[in-house]
Amino acid sequence: MFTSAARRGPAFWQLVASLGVQGLAHVGWVWQSSRGVNHNELAPAFVASALLLGGAALHPSMVRVGSAGGRPSAGITPQRVLLISSACLLSPVLLLVDGLLGVGSPDWMAASVCSVVVFLLLIVRILGLMRTVQEQSEQLESLAYLDGLTGIPNRRAWDVELERRLAVARRHGSTLVVGLIDLDHFKNYNDLLGHQAGDELLRSAGSAWQQQLRAGDLIARYGGEEFGLVMHCRLKDAAIIMDRLHEATPDGQTFSAGLAQWTGGESGEQLTARADAALYAAKREGRNRFSVAGHPSYTDLQADFVSSRH
């Protein structure tokens, strides 16, 4: 109960008190029995334990003690397995102690030693299975954040990573630029050459663009033929990166893109929406170019970018 994330309201503490009183009462009863004393002095303690348990069950906060939000977040850990296994070992260990003291049964040695060995082998096996399950879980989690076609991060990874990087930029006051890239006339490319060629174009474009980014920048498949970028730089440097991405675009294809620099107060959704609006502006202006959200002073850079493609 204490190692979990249970909500510790009045019901929780009544449960703790009930278990504590009951445990102490049982210790006292065992101590009395070992000395041949069997009085009823401990009866009020057992009654108090039952009353505390009933009070916990009737209290309104009891519904929150076992709620989903109050369960352990870390799941089963090796420490928990060792704790539970150690409790299981108490019985054979006590049997072994009784045998060494001469008060155990005739077969105390075989029973206690075999039980301890079996429990230890079981613990080793459980820990090995846990390690395997955790490794597989980590692999599945990593696959859940990768795009199955291109092998780069997917939309889910984009959403999570963008919020994380915005939080870092907010703490450190750093600059962030978000870009959305859309391959031009991708449907026509698919219709002309087939879907397999279209898939290969997406794979090769994602790989080629990823190689042109700096360490720490992010590219993800945003959806369909759209890709998202998170660049830790200013717009002027982002324009240079876009030019490099253009040169690396495979099979002579072109793309339209929209860029938006983080203002310092907007959310990831708002920032992405501005980049998306800039992307559609680039498409309206004739494609094969990029547009910058809210920065008309970058018109010259956009013109140079377009002329370098012809």
UniProtKB/TrEMBL annotation:
<feature type="transmembrane region" description="Helical">
    <location>
        <begin position="12"/>
        <end position="31"/>
    </location>
</feature>
<feature type="transmembrane region" description="Helical">
    <location>
        <begin position="81"/>
        <end position="102"/>
    </location>
</feature>
<dbReference type="InterPro" id="IPR043128">
    <property type="entry name" value="Rev_trsase/Diguanyl_cyclase"/>
</dbReference>
<keyword id="KW-0472">Membrane</keyword>
<feature type="transmembrane region" description="Helical">
    <location>
        <begin position="43"/>
        <end position="60"/>
    </location>
</feature>
<dbReference type="InterPro" id="IPR050469">
    <property type="entry name" value="Diguanylate_Cyclase"/>
</dbReference>
<protein>
    <submittedName>
        <fullName>GGDEF domain-containing protein</fullName>
    </submittedName>
</protein>
<feature type="transmembrane region" description="Helical">
    <location>
        <begin position="108"/>
        <end position="127"/>
    </location>
</feature>
<dbReference type="InterPro" id="IPR000160">
    <property type="entry name" value="GGDEF_dom"/>
</dbReference>
<dbReference type="Pfam" id="PF00990">
    <property type="entry name" value="GGDEF"/>
</dbReference>
<dbReference type="InterPro" id="IPR029787">
    <property type="entry name" value="Nucleotide_cyclase"/>
</dbReference>
<feature type="domain" description="GGDEF">
    <location>
        <begin position="174"/>
        <end position="295"/>
    </location>
</feature>
<keyword id="KW-0812">Transmembrane</keyword>
<keyword id="KW-1133">Transmembrane helix</keyword>
